[in-house]
Design goal:
The protein is an alpha/beta fold and 422 residues long. The chain has 16 helices and 15 strands. The strands form two sheets. Strands 1, 2, 3, 4, 5, 6, 7, 8 and 9 form a nine-stranded mixed β-sheet that branches. Strand 6 and strand 7 form a beta hairpin. The longest helix is centred in the middle third of the chain and has 20 residues. The radius of gyration is 24 Å and the shape is globular.
Length: 422
């Protein structure tokens, strides 16, 4: 078997036929097409079965809705091909593109061969080539001195061919967290971190649909899921003793985080900027901000976020403020929802402090509902499971329990929490 094509599918009845038709047009290669139905409740599964009757190369894995990352991982482990190719179910393959990837993989014994792609917008009925790799040399092994630059190109994991044993031997899989998004981010970083033989080609591989409202790149919820991807990359770096990549990771994180900020509504921008300030202040103190990886404008911007947050947020707040605590309180008027973790004496003190400044609180989060009242001063007391992952959590416990609470929040994938100085 030459290539295993993995197609993760969740409710794509509008676009799936075009995707599968393009795959059935593959000639001169021995392929299997693994359609992974992630619990679709539309006609997607019926379409898969219809195409399977047309072509025995199609295999179907039917499972409950456990998410994109789990679908991709199941595809990797069940694949029988020498190489693996991913394609999203709302995109479609360009003619003979897979042949170009395969020929170069065989010629250079490559771990990965990556190409460019077309961008398609049905609203404009327009196709254009996006040359994601234009700053690199094509049709040869990427030289060591150019490897670092690959981390900064868009992940576009569906425009590449991967040698399966390379992925398995290096334990390169997707973050399988259910309901998460952006899971190509950590996968792409792992690939570049471990690949030894890399080939880039100019060929556009797929038609990338940009106007699908269900695509994660077009969704405005789950604004902190991207943070989980960078926690996963940090885990991978530590496990594989690749700390030399920490400065590169800091730059990649900035690119991803600012892309996320630019797509958010105003009050969500503010919440996410708080995360950027917190995380990049630590990156700075850890020595991971290295100028050679940064352009001048971004270098100045990230240092303003870290060390001059008041000035950076001046336009959002509407006026200059004198200190960080005052700024934070001003920003909280723009943020929703807001929770206080802890309904004890210290948590109630935080509530009083905020209510005096006319800042609304949506709930107290506690670990044990049985030991707490249902409501405190008109604010409901809730379990963490009922709190939105896109909310802001203010830590309302004494210093004695603070680290324990922070560990618990991180364990439960809450990325946006702050402290106040009372």
């Amino acid at each position: 078997m030459d290539i295993s094509i993995i197609v993760p599918i969740y409710n794509q009845e509008l676009h799936l036929e075009k995707c599968l038709t393009s795959l059935l047009n593959i000639k001169d290669l021995c392929v299997e097409i693994i359609c992974i139905n992630d619990g679709s409740d539309d006609r997607s599964f019926e379409i898969m079965e219809e195409y399977q009757r047309k072509d025995s190369r199609i295999k179907i894995i039917n499972k409950e809705n456990t998410g994109y990352g789990d679908s991709m991982n199941r595809g990797i482990t069940s694949a029988e091909g020498k190489y693996i190719f991913f394609i999203e179910s709302d995109d479609w393959l360009a003619d003979y593109a897979l042949n170009d990837l395969f020929d170069n993989a065989e010629k250079f014994s490559a771990d990965i061969v990556k190409g460019n792609y077309y961008i398609y917008n049905s609203g404009q009925d327009k196709v254009s080539i996006y040359e994601n790799l234009k700053n690199f040399q094509y049709n040869c092994l990427v030289q060591k001195e150019n490897r670092d630059k690959l981390f900064f190109v868009a992940p576009s994991i569906w425009s590449a061919l991967y040698r399966k044993d390379f992925l398995i031997q290096n334990n390169i899989f997707f973050l399988p967290t259910q309901g998460a998004a952006y899971q190509d981010t950590s996968f792409a970083f792992k690939v570049w971190a471990k690949a030894e033989k890399i080939v880039l080609i100019q060929t556009p591989i797929i038609f990338y649909r940009q106007d699908n409202a269900e695509s994660s790149s077009n969704q405005r919820n789950k604004i902190f899921n991207i943070c989980d991807e960078f926690k996963e990359i940090n885990r991978f770096i530590k496990e594989n003793k690749l700390q030399n990549l920490a400065p590169i990771l800091a730059r990649v994180k900035y690119i991803s985080y600012m892309w996320n900020v630019n797509r958010l509504a105003q009050y969500d921008k503010i919440k996410f900027l708080m995360v950027i300030r917190k995380e990049f202040r630590k990156e700075s103190y850890d020595g991971n901000l290295v100028k050679k990886y940064w352009g001048d404008a971004d270098w100045e911007r990230i240092h303003n976020v870290i060390f001059n947050f008041e000035e950076y947020c001046k336009k959002i707040v509407g006026e200059q403020v004198n200190n960080e605590q005052t700024l934070l309180l001003e920003l909280l008027h723009y943020v929703t929802p807001i929770y206080i973790y802890g309904a004890g004496q210290y948590g109630r003190k935080v509530l009083k402090y905020l209510m005096e400044r006319k800042i609304g609180i949506d709930g107290f989060i506690v670990t044990n509902l049985d030991k707490n009242p249902l409501c405190v001063n008109g604010v409901p007391v809730i379990d963490a499971k009922r709190a939105s992952y896109d909310g802001l959590i203010i830590i309302g416990v004494s210093a004695k329990y603070k680290n324990e609470v922070i560990n618990e929040l991180e364990k439960k994938r809450y990325n946006n929490f702050i402290e106040l100085s009372l």
